[in-house]
Amino acid sequence: MIELRYFAWIRERIGLNGESFASGAKDVSSLIQELRLRGAPYDHVFADLSGIRVAVDQTVVEFDGSLVGAREVAFFPPMTGG
Amino acid sequence: MRVRVQTEAFDAGVELDAFSVGLSDVGAVVSFTGLVRQSPEGDLIALEIEHYPGMTERALKDLRERAITRFELSDALLIHRYGRLAVSEPIVMVATASPHREAAFKGADFLMDTLKSNAPFWKKEIRKAGEAWVEAHGRDAKALKRWESS
């Protein structure tokens, strides 16, 4: 099981702060494919990844980032702090 | 605590005084405070700031350590709020201390540029006409690039 976390518009579009998900994915791209196969709203949310960033265990990674040993994956838009 | 993530408002003057006390090797203290700015249309009611608890604190602590090492700062302070903030309320404050002013100025500048794109905060504007997430600016990415080569 992997813990998924969603923030900002992604959280709103999915309608959840997060969820546990049984995934066999070895990297972030494969996890996104698994999520898209669940249908709406995931297929729409993850259709265009240009506005999406990802962190594995609270460290920002690219979409080819490994999920080996990962406990938590977060999806969010580019950060807008300050 | 030199890194704080909080909902409560802060008094930048009080924070700066507390930060500046008892720094014997320091000749320069620089601070920056970011406020909620009214929109050009004048219809902004509030900002809602969301963050990623756990990662936010880690990212800010890491950023502080990087600034201290890179600019040989004597000390650095970062405060960032989240939750609902009304127009003109303080959002963020950074302060830096160093023996001479150049490092303190540069350190504060670096902290703000880097924080904007690397600390997991997201702002939503609550306007009379409705709500919208603030999009990341190209100018923020450009500001961050300044620090890559130098």
Description:
The complex is a heterodimer of chains A (82) and B (150). Chain A is an alpha+beta fold. In chain A, 24% of the residues lie in helices and 26% in strands. Chain A has helices spanning 8-14, 28-36, 42-45; strands spanning 2-6, 18-21, 53-56, 59-61, 72-76. A 5-stranded mixed β-sheet of chain A has the order 2-1-5-3-4. In chain A, a hairpin with a 2-residue loop joins strand 3 (53-56) and strand 4. The radius of gyration of chain A is 12 Å and the shape is globular. Chain A starts with a strand and ends in a 6-residue tail after the last strand. The mean pLDDT of chain A is 97. Chain B has 150 residues and is of the alpha+beta class. Chain B is built from 4 helices and 8 strands. In chain B, the strands form 2 sheets. Chain B has a 4-stranded mixed β-sheet, sandwiched between helices. In chain B, strand 7 (121-127) and strand 8 (130-133) form a beta hairpin. In chain B, helix 2 packs antiparallel against helix 3 (101-118) and helix 3 (101-118) crosses helix 4 (138-149). The two termini of chain B are 30 Å apart. Chains A and B meet through helix 1 of A and strand 3, helix 3 and strand 7 of B.
